[in-house]
Amino acid sequence: MNKLGSYISKLMTTVLDSEQEEFVKELALSELRRLNVDVNDFIRKHTKDNIDKIKETEKKLLQEDKKNVKDK
């Protein structure tokens, strides 16, 4: 099983465990928030990279089309 998935599952279980001390639950919740930010940053960065690559490819294709029209 994925170690990160297992870690996140344990944190969520800790937050939901009514027998856990409130302090421990808050620590687990804080860690989940931190992981959430890290994952969102990763997604944003890689989504932006993909969008930039798509725009660059479209720009190249448009330039090639303009060149082909001029050559005819």
Give an account of the 3D structure:
The chain is an all-alpha fold and 72 residues long. The chain has one domain (3-71). Helices cover 89% and strands 0% of the residues. It is built from 2 helices and no strands. The protein has helices spanning 3-16, 22-71. It is rod-shaped. The mean pLDDT is 86.
Task: Compute the number of structural domains.
Answer: 1
State the low-pLDDT regions, or none.
Answer: none
Principal-axes shape call: rod-shaped
H-E order: HH
Instruction: State the separation between the terminal residues, measured CA to CA.
Output: 59 Å
Radius of gyration: 23 Å
Oligomer state of the chains in this structure: single chain
User: What class would the helix/strand composition place it in?
Assistant: mainly alpha
Mean pLDDT rating: 86
Biggest β-sheet description = none
Strand content: under 5%
Number of helices: 2
Instruction: Assign a percent range to the helix content.
Output: over 70%
